[in-house]
């Protein structure tokens, strides 16, 4: 089983430029610089790489929307989103701390593909070690002529900077991130125009996730056919899957895209801790719908999870066991989403605190049966198309699926006027 993203990452250590090059690092860049930018885009399109940050948009197609040629606006920007604020998600941190040159090479190739002159790594404020490893790697890359003017004698120029963020979940929305990078409040922008034509400082810009960009060097080095061959899904490549919750062995594993949920949960995470039973899980972070026992055989790819009624999201699962209160869990999630709302639109600004307060009342024995109908109506009011961005609809996904699969737990709280899971 091939693990191109993580095979050279060692726990607690960071690969230097020499380590990375010893393992074939920057060979993908050399291959890319012999092609035209459009040819690089086509290789990535043919590989079937889709965004690993949550949305799953085809990467090569996204790049193709950026204007290319002498008449294109300048400068153009490439931004790596390393904010990683999705609860339960920590896969990008592994890549940033363990093998930072993999990201830098991926960014240089991606910048070449869209002819961007300037790049930013937008990093979560709390990732202190990652900030250190990236800073050191950037210095090594400049010293080796891999960044700056005339990279490897190709005539291509690219400067790359580290930007430490203030840390807001809304920056997962790319236009909110761009506003933050410009020094403004992180509110999403109206679209169109899309960032590919008018992004950072009004210039063409691409925002890609860290894991997405780390795939790019391997595709250019080994080819699109190889990339598709290491997947067991219609989409190419591997995926870094994660499991958190009361399992025996929580962690991260790079596996072929399309393994089953049961393989990750039982073979990699070791199943539930002794004395606990599996009840459900959020397959791709906090903003995805619960799946339950009947879904354990589904493929963990974009199509398989969607057909089951949820989303692959970040591919990092949060597991619910039979001795944890689902009402308390969902209340905790809605508290997070309410706190992280940017306040730009009314459904999100007022609807999420309202949802949180109803759940708090149910959890603390003050709920009424009609509250369940009210929660159902809020999942519709805050559904896609009714708010300015995807934050509120994402917040409704764990709630609507909890009401679907675990409604009796909500009703039991109301009937007993207490949380049955508290001693």
What's the arrangement of secondary structure elements?
Elements: H1 17-22, H2 27-33, H3 37-47, H4 59-64, E1 77-82, H5 91-98, H6 100-114, E2 118-123, H7 128-143, E3 159-164, H8 174-181, E4 205-209, H9 210-222, H10 224-229, E5 238-244, E6 251-256, H11 261-268, E7 278-282, H12 302-307, E8 316-321, H13 326-340, H14 346-363, H15 369-381, H16 391-405, H17 407-416
Parallel strand pairs: 1-2, 1-4, 2-3, 5-8
Antiparallel strand pairs: 5-6, 7-8
Helix pairs in contact: 2-6, 2-9, 3-6, 5-7, 6-9, 13-14, 13-16, 14-15, 15-16
Descriptive overview:
This protein has about 425 residues and is α/β, with parallel strands linked by helices. The protein has three domains: about 15-230, NADH-ubiquinone oxidoreductase 51kDa subunit (Rossmann fold); about 240-320, Ubiquitin-like (UB roll) (Roll), CATH 3.10.20.600; about 325-415, de novo design (two linked rop proteins). It has helices spanning about 15-20, 25-35, 35-45, 60-65, 90-100, 100-115, 130-145, 175-180, 210-220, 225-230, 260-270, 300-305, 325-340, 345-365, 370-380, 390-405, 405-415; strands at about 75-80, 120-125, 160-165, 205-210, 240-245, 250-255, 280, 315-320. The strands form two sheets. The protein has a four-stranded parallel beta sheet with strand order 3-2-1-4, with helices on both faces. β5 and β6 (about 250-255) form a beta hairpin. The longest helix is centred in the last third of the chain and has 18 residues, at about 345-365. Its EC number is 7.1.1.-. It is an enzyme of class 7 (translocase). Composed of 13 different subunits. Subunits NuoCD, E, F, and G constitute the peripheral sector of the complex. Belongs to the complex I 51 kDa subunit family.
């Amino acid at each position: 089983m091939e693990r191109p993203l993580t095979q050279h990452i060692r726990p607690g250590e960071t690969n230097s430029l020499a380590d990375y090059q010893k393992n074939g690092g920057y060979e993908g860049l050399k291959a890319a610089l012999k092609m035209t930018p459009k040819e690089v885009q086509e290789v990535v399109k043919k590989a079937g790489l889709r965004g690993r940050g949550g949305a799953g948009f085809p990467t090569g197609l996204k790049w193709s929307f950026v204007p290319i040629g002498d008449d294109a606006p300048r400068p153009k920007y490439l931004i790596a989103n390393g904010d990683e604020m999705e609860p339960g998600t920590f896969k990008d941190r592994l890549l940033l701390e363990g093998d930072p040159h993999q990201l830098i090479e991926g960014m240089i190739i991606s910048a070449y593909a869209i002819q961007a002159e300037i790049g930013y790594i937008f990093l979560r404020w709390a990732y202190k070690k990652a900030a250190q490893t990236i800073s050191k790697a950037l210095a090594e890359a400049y010293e080796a002529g891999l960044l700056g003017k005339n990279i490897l004698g190709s005539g291509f120029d690219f400067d790359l900077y580290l930007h430490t963020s203030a840390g807001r979940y809304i920056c997962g929305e790319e236009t909110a991130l761009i506003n933050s990078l410009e020094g403004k409040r992180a509110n999403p922008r109206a679209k169109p125009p899309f960032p590919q034509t008018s992004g950072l400082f009004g210039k063409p810009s691409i925002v890609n996730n860290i894991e997405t960009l780390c795939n790019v060097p391997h595709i250019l080095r080994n080819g699109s056919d190889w990339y598709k061959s290491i997947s067991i899904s219609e989409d190419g490549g591997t995926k870094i899957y994660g499991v958190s919750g009361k399992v025996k062995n929580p962690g991260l594993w790079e596996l072929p895209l399309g393994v089953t949920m049961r393989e990750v949960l039982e073979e990699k995470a070791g199943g539930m801790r002794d004395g606990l039973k599996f009840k459900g899980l959020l397959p791709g972070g906090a903003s995805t719908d619960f799946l339950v026992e009947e879904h354990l055989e589904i493929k963990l790819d974009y199509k398989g999870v969607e057909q089951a009624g949820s989303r692959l999201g970040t591919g990092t699962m949060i597991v619910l066991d039979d001795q944890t209160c689902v009402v308390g869990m969902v209340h905790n999630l809605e508290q997070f989403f309410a706190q992280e709302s940017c306040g730009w639109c009314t459904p999100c600004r007022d609807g999420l605190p309202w949802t949180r307060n109803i759940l708090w009342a149910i959890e603390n024995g003050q709920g009424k049966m009609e509250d369940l109908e009210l929660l159902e109506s809020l999942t519709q009011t805050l559904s896609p198309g009714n708010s300015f961005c995807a934050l509120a609809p994402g917040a409704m996904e764990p709630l609507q699926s909890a009401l679907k699969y675990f409604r009796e737990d909500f009703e039991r709280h109301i009937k007993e006027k207490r949380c049955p899971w508290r001693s």
